[in-house]
Each structure stands twice: as structure tokens, then as C-alpha cells.
Amino acid sequence: MKRIYVNEEWCLGCKLCEYNCAFANSGEYDMVKALKDKKITSRIHVEEATNKITYAVSCRHCDDPICVKCCISGALSKKDDAVEIDKNKCIGCYTCILVCPYGAILPSEEHVATKCELCLNNSFGSPACVKGCPNNAIVFEER
User: Fold this and answer.
1) 128, 27 Cβ separation under 8 angstroms
2) Which of 42, 78, 85, 113 has the lowest tally of Cβ within 10 angstroms?
3) Where in the chain are the domains?
4) Do domains 1-58+123-143 and 62-115 have the same CATH topology?
5) What is the pLDDT of residues 94-109, one digit of tens each?
6) Which letter, b or e, does each residue of 45-60 get, where b requires 16 or more Cβ atoms within 10 Å of its Cβ?
7) Helix, strand or coil for residue 105?
8) What are the contacts of 79-86 at 24+ separation with CB within 8 A?
9) Where are the alpha helices (DSSP H) in the chain?
10) For the domain bounded by 62-115, which CATH number is listed?
11) pLDDT value of position 130
12) Is 91:72 a contact under the CB 8 Å cutoff?
């Protein structure tokens, strides 16, 4: 299965992956309309380690995801090797956020969990964070 991998030695910390992710999941066709004067809500986030190494954190779409097992409402499921959230079923208990060992699930403004879904549910067709990374620090490949 193809997954998103981060080569932290190439990450510049520019956060373009966050902007591209937010745009891809905004429902807009114009990046300016999607992001100008709005809080950026991305499903991927860039972290900086104490030794100045930066890296993007996103869902690993685990083979045996503990978040799916712990979801009390059944909102999380594994479909076609990707872990997805049904926002209509999510009750906002955030148990998935607590159990994710990678810190890849985040609360949203709608008070439901949100995470990377590999851009499978939008018109981009492949992860927007990968397309938008200027240094190829984020890749979508099989390893």
C-alpha cells in the first residue's frame, strides 16, 4: 500500500504542505478564496524538534489501527487501506486523538476528529501535501 512518508532531512519547515492540505480539503477551487483571511485548518502539521529538525506529521494509515478499535461511535474505519472518519458519526469524544501514537488525529472547528485521508475524498486524486512540497520531503510511495 502507498503511504505518505516524510524525509525529515529534506524538510525546510516551510509549512507549504499545511497550506496545500487546507486548500485541498476546503471545497474551494481557488486557493486565495479558500485560505485568505481564514484560519488554516490542515490535516497535516509540521513539528520542530529541539535540534532544529522539522518534519510533517500525518496519519500513517496503520495496518492494525488502534484509533479504529477505540472509536466508540464507529466513525473511524479502514477502507481500501486508508483510515477514514465519518464526520456524521463522530461524537467528538476524541478518544482517537488520545490513542494515536503519532499525534496525527486532530480536533476540528466542528468539534469532531479530523485526519489525513490521503485526499481520497476530494478532487486532487493524490495527497496535496506531496504535490505542494517544494523539496520532495514528503513522498507518497510504497516501501
Assistant:
1) no
2) 78
3) 1-58+123-143, 62-115
4) yes
5) 999 999 999 999 999 8
6) bbeeeeeeebbbbbbb
7) coil
8) 80/120, 81/1, 82/117, 82/118, 82/120, 83/59, 83/115, 83/117, 84/117, 84/120, 84/121, 85/112, 85/113, 85/114, 85/115, 85/117
9) 16-24, 31-35, 66-70, 95-99, 128-131
10) 3.30.70.20
11) 93
12) yes
Mean pLDDT of the chain: 90
Q: Are 18 and 132 in contact (CB under 8 A)?
A: no
CB-based contact 86:75 (threshold 8 Å): yes
Q: CATH number for the 1-58+123-143 domain, one of 3.30.70.20, 3.40.50.150, 2.60.40.10, 3.30.1360.170?
A: 3.30.70.20
The residue-averaged pLDDT of 86-94 equals 96
Rg of the chain taking only CA atoms, in angstroms: 15
φ, ψ dihedrals at 21, nearest 5°: -65, -50
**Which residue type occupies 52?**
K
What integer pLDDT is reported at residue 72 of this predicted model? 96
The DSSP letter of residue 63 is: S
Q: Is the pTM of this model over 0.85?
A: yes
Q: What local confidence, expressed as pLDDT, does residue 73 receive?
A: 96
Query: What is the pLDDT at residue 123?
Result: 67
